[in-house]
Design brief:
- The chain has about 250 residues and is an alpha/beta fold.
- It is about 40% helix and about 15% strand.
- Strand 3, helix 1 and strand 4 form a beta-alpha-beta unit.
- Helix 2 runs parallel beside helix 3 and helix 3 runs parallel beside helix 4.
- Bound molecules: NADP nicotinamide-adenine-dinucleotide phosphate.
């Protein structure tokens, strides 16, 4: 089916999108639903901010709680297969190394890294029932670069969690290939979402500064990340696994 100018080859199926209530996750839910998939939007908070879409069902669970994710999938899927998982749930806390507590470290690593591992593990019995399942993890430009421009101080715990998620993606590709399951990541740069707005609040010159450093001259839109996620899930990416795709408007070249 064609969405905009992108040809997405999906032969139907069901997708689980974590963090599906907001930002990149919400855009991904929209695009996959428009592409003919049945979508489960899973989030830690009840759905309230996003208008109801007919092909979308909502689940409330914390991605760090494997049993809660299993319960949600059991309730919504029963014995039916799950074809796709998008791990987009994530948190970002602005703090420099000297002010990061053990609790800060554990919370960010837990949600951004352990959460993606446990959610995928919980989904595995359903993914194995699919003929061509795929996982996409949402990492970050900060997985491979210290981005001092955007953050007054480097965010060591966030960067480390996303670097870990890149290696988790590679491990998933290696481990799950035996079941025909592909695993890839997208690494977004500066994307206009509630998370980005919260992080950049109080840094008045930031949007202009950042835009000036980005070859594309602007922040990205969540829909521009969603389209890459959809491609990596689709049959068009049937021989792509263990790959990471930067979506940063070219920032990493500067
Ligand atoms: P966002 O708008 O804040 O969305 C994140 C979503 O994850 C929210 O709906 C949040 O729910 C949910 N969430 C947080 N903790 C959760 C948990 N424990 N269990 C289940 N859901 C949870 O942020 P976004 O910018 O779209 O970020 C999406 C992903 O992209 C994140 O992994 C982020 O690190 C990554 N990313 C974003 C950017 C950017 O510039 N925006 C750049 C690089 C990477 P609540 O709102 O209820 O807490």
């Amino acid at each position: 089916m064609t969405v905009g100018h992108l040809h997405l080859a999906f032969a139907g199926g069901t997708a689980l999108v974590t963090g599906g209530r907001s930002g990149i996750g919400a855009s991904t839910v929209d695009l996959l639903a428009e592409s003919g998939l049945s979508v489960i939007a899973l989030d830690v908070s009840p759905e309230d901010a996003v208008a109801h879409r007919p092909a979308v069902r909502h689940a409330v669970a914390d991605v760090t709680d494997e049993a809660a994710v299993t319960t949600a999938l059991t309730d919504l899927l029963g014995e039916s297969p799950l074809d796709y998982v998008v791990n987009s749930a994530g948190i970002h806390r602005q703090a420099g190394l000297e002010s990061l507590s053990a609790a800060d470290w554990r919370q960010v690593l837990d949600v951004n890294l352990v959460g993606a591992a446990l959610t995928t593990k919980a989904a595995l019995p359903w993914l194995r029932r699919s003929a061509g399942a795929a996982v996409v993890n949402v990492t970050s430009l900060e997985a491979s670069r210290v981005v001092a421009l955007i953050n007054p101080e480097p965010v060591a715990h966030y960067a480390a969690s996303k670097a870990g998620l890149e290696m988790l993606t590679a491990s998933m590709a290696r481990d799950l290939g035996r079941y025909g399951i592909r695993a890839n990541s997208v690494a977004p740069g500066f994307i206009q979402t509630p998370m980005a707005r919260a992080n950049h609040a109080g840094v008045a010159a930031l949007p202009e500064q950042a835009a000036a450093r980005v070859p594309m001259g602007r922040y990205g839109d969540p829909a521009e990340v969603a389209s890459a996620i959809a491609f990596l899930l689709s049959e068009g990416a049937s021989y792509i696994t263990g790959a990471s795709l930067l979506i940063d408007g070219g920032f990493s070249t500067t």
